[in-house]
């Protein structure tokens, strides 16, 4: 009886092992979601963040070029008109670079601004004079601040040399445009998002102790 029971258990164990091996062979290996979003290209791996950068820069141009043109007829301030023209012309250049880079890397780009940008365009299209000047300067300055963090984040960590070059170019454009907008004297810096909270510094005594033992 005991021998029979042991034999049945042995056979059952064999079936379990066989089933486990079959499942392991049939089931695909687990895929890391982050790795699944990577695409290998001739200039290095292309991540979801890299593709998102191209999309966001493209969309920035799609609304900033038209509102730069609005400034030529709706602004009262001569400096706002000048800044609008500069941003419009420079975004045309940046848009060409964006489309060329996206084509090299096989990234699909949008052909219209996002819903927030469309709303800002509608707001500015309905304004003129001092109201236009103020909102033009502040809406565009806030938008440039947001896209700057995206561009800088990708520039600091991308593994793709083409995106690295593109992000560096993007940083130069965004910083220049922020300076243009601030030169109007209309930007309300108190309404801009707070800078990120810095990490707490280590206690002085602890830092000195570590240096002493290093």
Could you spell the SSE succession in H and E letters? HHEEHHHHHH
Distance between the termini: 70 Å
Based on CA atoms alone, the radius of gyration comes out at 28 Å
| Count of alpha/pi helices | 8
Kindly state the mean pLDDT as a whole number?
84
Low confidence ranges: 9-35
Question: Which term fits the overall shape?
Answer: globular
The secondary-structure class comes to mainly alpha
CATH topology name of one domain: Ferritin
Major sheet strand order: 1-2
- Give me the count of strands: 2
The CATH superfamily title of one domain: Ferritin, core subunit, four-helix bundle
Largest sheet: 2 strands, antiparallel
Strand content: under 5%
Protein name: DUF4142 domain-containing protein
Organism: Nonomuraea antimicrobica
Keywords: Membrane, Transmembrane, Transmembrane helix
Structural description of this entry:
The protein has 8 helices and 2 strands, in the order ααββαααααα. It has helices at residues 2-26, 33-36, 48-74, 78-105, 115-125, 129-157, 161-182, 204-213; strands at 39-41, 44-46. It is mainly α. Helix content is 73%, strand content 3%. The model is unreliable at 9-35 (pLDDT under 50). It is globular and about 55 Å long. Strands 1-2 form a two-stranded antiparallel sheet. The protein has a domain at 46-186: Up-down Bundle (Ferritin). Keywords: Membrane, Transmembrane, Transmembrane helix. Residues 188-214 are annotated as: Disordered.
Please sum up the structure shown.
The protein contains 8 helices and 2 strands, in the order ααββαααααα. It is mainly alpha-helical and 214 residues long. About 13% of the residues have low confidence.
């Amino acid at each position: 009886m005991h021998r029979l029971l042991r034999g049945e258990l042995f056979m059952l164990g064999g079936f379990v092992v066989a089933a486990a091996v079959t499942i392991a062979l049939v089931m695909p290996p687990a895929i890391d979601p982050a790795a699944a979003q990577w695409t290998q290209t001739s200039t290095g791996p292309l991540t979801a963040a890299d593709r998102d950068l191209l999309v966001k820069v493209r969309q920035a141009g799609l609304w900033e070029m038209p509102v730069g043109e609005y400034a030529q007829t709706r602004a009262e301030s001569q400096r706002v008109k000048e800044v609008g023209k500069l941003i419009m012309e420079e975004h045309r250049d940046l848009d060409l670079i964006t489309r060329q880079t996206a084509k090299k890397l096989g990234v699909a780009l949008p052909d219209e601004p996002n819903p927030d940008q469309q709303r800002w365009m509608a707001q500015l299209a309905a304004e003129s004079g001092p109201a236009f000047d103020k909102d033009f300067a502040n809406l565009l300055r806030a938008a440039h601040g947001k896209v700057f963090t995206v561009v800088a984040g990708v520039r600091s960590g991308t593994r793709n040399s083409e995106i690295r070059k593109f992000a560096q170019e993007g940083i130069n454009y965004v910083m220049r445009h922020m300076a243009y907008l601030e030169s109007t004297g209309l930007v309300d810096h108190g309404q801009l998002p707070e800078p990120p909270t810095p990490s707490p510094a280590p206690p002085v005594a602890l830092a000195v102790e570590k240096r002493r033992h290093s």
